[in-house]
Structures are given as structure tokens and as C-alpha cells.
Design brief:
The chain has 579 residues and is an alpha/beta fold. The protein has helices spanning 3-17, 44-51, 55-69, 93-105, 134-152, 169-182, 193-206, 208-222, 226-249, 269-278, 317-330, 346-358, 394-412, 418-438, 450-453, 461-478, 494-503, 506-516, 520-539, 547-570, and strands at residues 28-30, 39-41, 76-82, 86-91, 118-122, 156-160, 282-285, 288-297, 303-309, 336-342, 367-373, 376-377, 446-447. Bound molecules: arginine.
Length: 579
């Protein structure tokens, strides 16, 4: 349990006993400044207003309740009323010491895995026969961190790689793959998917016979023709094996088993449309089937029509997402489904889900969340592109990261073996790219900048990875194996106290990431932890201290190392022991 929820429970009870409603929220927050205590209860003012009493008087009543019940004895050693009626809470040193000891000696740092939901996480989701672009990179990195955090907290997570593997373009792609095979091109030439797609399109636009064949292949593919299906599968397999190589390089947990592409939902689409028509949710309009949603207006201020089936019978991206929502609820028995995609798809997702609810495909309590993200920009502030304006290939981006990290690491000339050097360069290169993305609020656009992400100072992967090795080096210097440490943690110095408080807030940052899908909260937490550890280490000598103090401080250092490592791992960032 987090300190925040422990305080929530006790303050809530005290507020209720002082006259507040049963559902009153004490609004427990971590304090911004030490003089305001470790936590603050900010809920008194609104309750007092409701009750028509003076907030400071009501706050005093709450403190009296707490004193009588002795609920916070041994947890907080001072409570005070501040300003218009805030309650500042100062935690007890012994409570902090004991809690830190428990965290250090228990599995999973004492964090209970009490989440019980089945959560679908729809992420990465590249398109077949196209190169993964930077938008998919963001989805892949942020989504994978969300997967790790929710799994750590106990949820059953189902990864859904919603691959764009269906649609009219496949007639053209199959026809072009056939043409290449006839011309004896080897599959190797497909390694450049971007070029493959571009050439297929050019042929389609300029060669009428080819275009006609392409159109006939779409029809055949949709009616289950074996040859077309086999060719289609080949395209999917080639694309996904390339993507899988990227996932492995990126230390992303997706595998082939997680592919749940658009094609999966295709057989369900006629029924979706029929149900929506039968229920009167969808109507025929000029041959197409359309849903009018009053909450979405067009430029004229009239309800916006969303097409779910075209005049020619074809289905749309929206139709697929309605089916996906239904499938995730009925077939996968999920409680919550999250989609990680670009902010520009926000309206699309909202519309698909509004229709899914209107059509009764999912109940109101089924959580559908779009965890949108902004664009990745170049240093010029424009969408991230190659110098010639093309899409940046993921593989090239990662190669550049490795090249730059190699220069950086070699300039530091660390005392490592050749194998350790390779692992270190990989951890820093991939870590830097991932961490740069994870550490920014996902909804804002962010500037992709090699120099800042590979900096050893600031909220960056190299800084965090180095901070971890620094803590670990203390044990090497002391010649102590942290697993053999026993005895108590004793807190006397203010810096020890500050470190213990911060360490015990790890779980609070995880709970927030789990709720909002915002890994930057975890990055920010780890960055602050590393800073607080540095001040502790400067002020509180470890190796030269007397035996008991040394033993206690080594335990705090060990918990710091474990927290940094676990936190970075939940972000999908590798750590090394030496750098
Ligand atoms: N394939 C899509 C794209 O490249 C992203 C899919 C997101 N997921 C979803 N269920 N629509 O933009």
C-alpha cells in the first residue's frame, strides 16, 4: 500500500467522524516543500464550504479525531494546519525506517500486485508493406512501458498489435509481389518496403493492365481465394519479421503471438453494420451506410455523418475499430482497452467507440481509452524527416543511435571488457532514444535531439544509467554483497530522511502511470530519486561511517539501486553494472 492511500484512509475516516459525507475525499498530495511536511491533505476547504463551517475550525476537528483515534500514531509525528485549512503531515522517522526496511527485504520492493483487470493494450500497430515510421516508434515505446507497469501491478495484459494488414491496397501489393516474383527478384529486395510500396503504386498508376489485375485481386482476396491469401500472408510475414527485429533491438516485449491485425476483424464487419442498421443507429445515405452522431458536428454545425460501409460495399477503418472494441469485450473478456496512437486519430477513436456504445456492442462500464501522443519533431520544429524530406527508417535511426553512443562511451574510456562495452553501448543508444520519448508528457510534440538525449546531465538515459552504476559501485568499493545485509535502518540525518521518503514514493508514481499511461511521471520520479541520492551521498559518508550507520546507509543505497533498476526496467530501459 502507498503512504498516500494509507493517509487517505485515515484522514477520510477522521473527516467523516468530524461530520463530512461518507464519500468525502481528503485529497492527499505529496508536499512540494519540506516545510509543508511530507504530505498534505487539501480536501478540508471544500468539505467545510459544503458544511458551512470555518475550514480551519473543521481542520482542527479532524486533527482532534485523529488524536483520539490514535490512527496516525507511529505513522506521523506532527500534523499542522496551514493557510486557509490545509493539513500538513510530517511522517515519523521510525515509520520511514521500518517501511524502507520492509521494501528492501521483500519481493518486488513490497509493492502488492493487486490489479485484477484484463487490459488490452493496442500499440505499435504498423502497416504491412510499409516501413515503420516515427509515429509507430512512439506508440511502441510508450505502449510497451504501459504494458510492463500494468503487468507489474498484477493486471492480465493482452498485447494487441493492431497491424494495418487489410484494405484495398493489397490487390496492388499482391499484383506487384507477383510481378517481382515473375521477374525473378528475390525476397531480399523486399527488405526495402518503402521502395516496394512506392514502386507498386507507381506501376498501379501508370500501367492500366496491372491496375486491372490489382483490382481483381482485391475482390479475390476478399472472397478468400487461396492464391491471393497466400501472397497476402507472404507480405505480412516479410513485414512482421522485419518489425520483430526492430522490437528485439528496442527491447520491446512484442512477439508474433501479439499480432491482432485489422484482418482479424474483417469477417465480423457485415454483422456489425447489420446490427447498427437493425437498431436504427445507422442509415442508408446515397448508397452508403452512415451513422450520424449528434456530439460531432460538421462545419455547418450539423451532426457529422460517419460512413461505416461505402457505396461499393467496402468497410472503413472506423468499422474495424467498432468490431475491435466488441471483440475485446466479448471474446477477450477485457475490462479495459487502451489504444496508443497519434493525437490525430483522437476523433476517429472517439467516433468508433461512441458508435460501439450506441450499437450496444460494449457496455457503459467497459473502459475504452485513447492514450494519444503528439508528434516527434526535428530540431527545426517541423515533423521529423530525413534531410531530403523522406520518412526516417527505424533501423537507420537505431544504427545512428549506436554510432553516436559508441563515440560517447569510448570518449569516457570506461574500464570494461569488450563484451561489456558492446552491452553498454547498446543500453545507452537504445535507452537514450526510448528515454527521450518516455520522459516527455506523451500528449505534447517533442523535439528529437541527439545531443540532449545523449547527455550525461539532465533527465536522460545515460544520466539515469550512470546514477545506477554509481550506487552499485559503492558496494564494489565496500566489498559488500547487498544481499547479505541485515539489521535495522536508522534515520537520523535529514538527507537520510528525504531519501527514505522518496524511495517509499516509488509505488505512487507507478500507480499514476498505470492509471494515465504517462511514463514521464516514472521518469521524473527516478530522476528526482537519483538527485536526492546524490545529496544524501554527499552529506552522509557511507564507507567511513561507524558500523551501524554504515550498515543502515548501505541498506538505503541498496534500496535506491533496486528502485532505479526496477523503475528503468518498467520503462524498458536496460541497466549495466559498470560504465
Ligand atoms: N495502423 C494505424 C496507423 O498506422 C494505427 C492503429 C491504431 N490502433 C487502432 N485500433 N486503430 O496509424
Amino acid at each position: 500500500m502507498t503512504i498516500q492511500s494509507l493517509l487517505h484512509t485515515h484522514l477520510q475516516t477522521a473527516m467523516i467522524n468530524a461530520g463530512a459525507d461518507k464519500d468525502t475525499d481528503p485529497v492527499i498530495k505529496q508536499s512540494g516543500k519540506p516545510q509543508f511536511g511530507d504530505y498534505q491533505a487539501n480536501g478540508v476547504m471544500s468539505v467545510a464550504k459544503k458544511l458551512g463551517t470555518n475550514p480551519r475550525e473543521f481542520a482542527q476537528k479532524v486533527l482532534d479525531e485523529l488524536e483520539n483515534s490514535q490512527a496516525l500514531d507511529g505513522i506521523a509525528d506532527k500534523l499542522e494546519i496551514a493557510g486557509p485549512g490545509f493539513i500538513n503531515i510530517f511522517l515519523d522517522k521510525e515509520f520511514l525506517a521500518k517501511s524502507a526496511h520492509t521494501a528492501r527485504t521483500s519481493d518486488r520492493l513490497g509493492i502488492t500486485s493487486d490489479h485484477t483487470e484484463t487490459v488490452i493494450i493496442d500499440y505499435s500497430s504498423p502497416n504491412v508493406a510499409k516501413e515503420m515510421h516515427v509515429g509507430h516508434l512512439r506508440s511502441t515505446i510508450i505502449g510497451d512501458s504501459s504494458v510492463r507497469v500494468l503487468e507489474f501491478l498484477g493486471d492480465t495484459v493482452i498485447r494487441a498489435n493492431h497491424v494495418g494488414d487489410w484494405g484495398t491496397q493489397f490487390g496492388m501489393l499482391i499484383a506487384y509481389l507477383e510481378k517481382m516474383q515473375n521477374e525473378n527478384a528475390s525476397d531480399m529486395e523486399l527488405s526495402d518496403l518503402e521502395a516496394f510500396y512506392r514502386d507498386a503504386k507507381a506501376t498501379y498508376d501508370n500501367d492500366e493492365a496491372f491496375a486491372e489485375k490489382a483490382r481483381s485481386y482485391v475482390v479475390k482476396l476478399q472472397s478468400g481465394d487461396e492464391y491471393c491469401l497466400a501472397m497476402w500472408q507472404k507480405l505480412v510475414a516479410i513485414t512482421m519479421s522485419q518489425n520483430q527485429a526492430s522490437y528485439e533491438r528496442l527491447n520491446v516485449t512484442l512477439t508474433d503471438k501479439d499480432i491482432m491485425g485489422e484482418s482479424l476483424y474483417n469477417p465480423m464487419l457485415p454483422d456489425i453494420v447489420k446490427t447498427l442498421k437493425d437498431k436504427g443507429v445507422a442509415v442508408e445515405d446515397d448508397g452508403a451506410t452512415v451513422v450520424y452522431l449528434p456530439e460531432f458536428k460538421n462545419k455547418e454545425g450539423e451532426p457529422l455523418g460517419i460512413i461505416i460501409q461505402k457505396k461499393d460495399g467496402g468497410f472503413l477503418y472506423t468499422t474495424t475499430d467498432i468490431a475491435a472494441a466488441s471483440y475485446r469485450y466479448h471474446t477477450l473478456h477485457a475490462d479495459r482497452a487502451i489504444v496508443y496512437s497519434d493525437t490525430r486519430q483522437a476523433q476517429h477513436m472517439a467516433q468508433a467507440w461512441a458508435i460501439a456504445r450506441l450499437g450496444g456492442f460494449v457496455p457503459d462500464n467497459f473502459k475504452l481509452e485513447h492514450h494519444n501522443f503528439g508528434m516527434m519533431l526535428g530540431k527545426d520544429g517541423k515533423p521529423f524527416k530525413t534531410r531530403t524530406g523522406g520518412t526516417v527508417k527505424l533501423a537507420d535511426l537505431l544504427d545512428e543511435a549506436v554510432a553516436r553512443a559508441t563515440v560517447l562511451i569510448d570518449s569516457k574510456n570506461p574500464d570494461v571488457t569488450a563484451d561489456e562495452r558492446t552491452a553498454l553501448i547498446d543500453a545507452v543508444a537504445i535507452g537514450a532514444v526510448k528515454y527521450a520519448d518516455l520522459s516527455k508528457h506523451r500528449t505534447t510534440d517533442y523535439v528529437f535531439d541527439w545531443d540532449s538525449m545523449l547527455n550525461f546531465e539532465g533527465n536522460t538515459a545515460p544520466y539515469m544509467q550512470y546514477a545506477y552504476t554509481r550506487v552499485r559501485s559503492i558496494f564494489a568499493k565496500a566489498g559488500v554483497n547487498p544481499d547479505t545485509l541485515t539489521g535495522e535502518i536508522v534515520i537520523t540525518d535529514d538527507k537520510e530522511r528525504a531519501l527514505a521518503v522518496k524511495l517509499l514514493q516509488f509505488e505512487e508514481s507507478l500507480r499514476q502511470v498505470a492509471k494515465d499511461g504517462t511514463p514521464h511521471v516514472l521518469c521524473g520520479y527516478l530522476y528526482e530519486l537519483a538527485g536526492i541520492f546524490s545529496s544524501f551521498y554527499e552529506a552522509c559518508p557511507i564507507l567511513s561511517a561507524d558500523d551501524d550507520t554504515k550498515n543502515s546507509r548501505l541498506q538505503l543505497a541498496d534500496l535506491t539501486a533496486k528502485t532505479l533498476k526496477t523503475g528503468l526496467d518498467l520503462l524498458g530501459i536496460k541497466t549495466v553494472e559498470k560504465m
